[in-house]
Design brief:
A seven-stranded parallel beta sheet has the order 8-7-6-9-10-11-12, with helices on both faces. It has a five-stranded antiparallel beta sheet with strand order 1-2-3-4-5, with no helix packed on it. The relative contact order is 0.09. The radius of gyration is 27 Å and the shape is globular. By secondary structure, it is α/β, with parallel strands linked by helices. It is 29% helix and 18% strand. Strand 4 and strand 5 form a beta hairpin. The longest helix has 29 residues.
Length: 381
Amino acid sequence: MPGRQPLHEQGEGRVVGDRRRHLDQVSRPSHGELRVPAGGQQGRDPASPRVPADDLEPGNHRQPRPGEVGVLDLVGVGIVHPGGLHVQQDLVRSGNRVRHLQVLQRLGAAKLSDHDRTHPSDPSVSRAPWDVRRPGRPVSGTVAGVGRSVLITGAGRGIGLATARAMVASGDQVTITYRSQPPPTEPGVLAVRADVTSVADVDAAFTAAEKAHGPVQVAVANAGVLRDQLLLRMTDEDFATVVDTNLAGAFRVARRAARAMVRARHGRIVLVSSVVAVMGSAGQANYAASKAGLIGMARSLARELGPRGITTNVVTPGFVDTVMTSGLSERRRSEILRGIPLGRYATAEEVAAVVAFLASEQAGYVNGAVVPVDGGLSMGQ
């Protein structure tokens, strides 16, 4: 149209499209990646200065100034820098949010791989993975040299402690909780006293983990107690104490963990149940009920939180050689072994390996699963 200067004319840079929605400043995170505030909407990112209103008038088309981004009908973005840098980003819109930014960069004769790195000065560092649903946000703490923030309850010994060691070995930053006896000092592990029957204790444990390692990205609910008794002798307190610790405690952990995970649109929740949940056991009505409840809760959370990129899974260990099973009589141990096809108890490390897998990025499509680690004891259940 007469009097209108097309944006695609030659100038300091070239911008794809023919009508501008708004003009915003490029924000450059500390790690060096170029990004556009999620949604591409003015005012979403407080670090971005507001563009003068006259620049946003539909009829006011001009060449962008150095360092500016023009969002054009949500088709493309042109970023113009002094020296001829031109960055074109393809946008995919879903509702009112720009979901995905795919960056194509051209800087003179420089190669993209030389420029588009998390740490441009260090060629040994590979590019960090980014969540396509939240531009500029890492899907996990997998940026080179920085592990994920992990919290494991009931990790003073046994399966919990073995899981903590496995996570530390994979490079994660781990916080563990214990109720009474402090665990042995472990390199790379922060130990916090917490009783999962207390909302305040659970919140304090997460707060400590967040201060030390950042928002919790992996939560493992492992805390549990036993109060075995035949039905006619089991008291209300026996039943309530076990359910409050094993089931309600896991609920409190999952609820607190979900806060940051929902905001990040990514997370892993693993609940440690028991083979008794699917097989039952005489004298363990309270324990079986609490562990079976974890399965129903996990599958509900899997449906509720799955759309937010959060997986929730359950591990059902069989009989593990830990302090909790050491009190069994030799006769009872022999009876149990006869029912296990592998003919032996599991080690805590074998269970921990499965927990670590479900918490990993490789298990990103495993959700609502109940994974037995029982040597074949519960086959067919």
